[in-house]
Amino acid sequence: xxxxxxxxxxxxxxxxxxxxxxxxxxxxxxxxxxxxxxxxxxxxxxxxxxxxxxxxxxxxxxxxxxxxxxxxxxxxxxxxxxxxxxxxxxxxxxxxxxxxxxxxxxxxxxxxxxxxxxxxxxxxxxxxxxxxxxxxxxxxxxxxxxxxxxxxxxxxxxxxxxxxxxxxxxxxxx
Length: 174
Prior knowledge:
By secondary structure, the chain is mainly alpha-helical. The protein contains 9 helices and 2 strands, in the order αββαααααααα. β1 and β2 form a beta hairpin. α2 runs parallel beside α6 (107-126) and α6 (107-126) packs across α8 (142-156).
């Protein structure tokens, strides 16, 4: 179907971009695990989650898009690290931020925090009553909408997708 094609295409494009990148921070070792690259570590941590397979496969590539796996990256908005956590979100998912140590800059700790964050987003969105109505109404494969919504909620927040779900479930109200 069209939606499956879009989901597969976005994953393929992200992987392709990763493969052709000039910055190889993903191949750097994880502190404390010198034989494990950042990408391999992210894959392992995501594999340990209860997320669906299509998200486990895609999510390890998010730090490439966010920071090219650089742990020293800081945005002008206050996000830091390979996963570009904002301070409040980092705290919410168990990471310390200044004035103590900034765990957003520790790839291993931040990756575990990101796994908790994505699991929370996925659980919240997939249980949304409007999402369930859309899924039934349009006979959607969950990977077609909830996967991209989970990934993009990391950037713009769940509330935007919950609003979109409400509009799609009840278009006559808008």
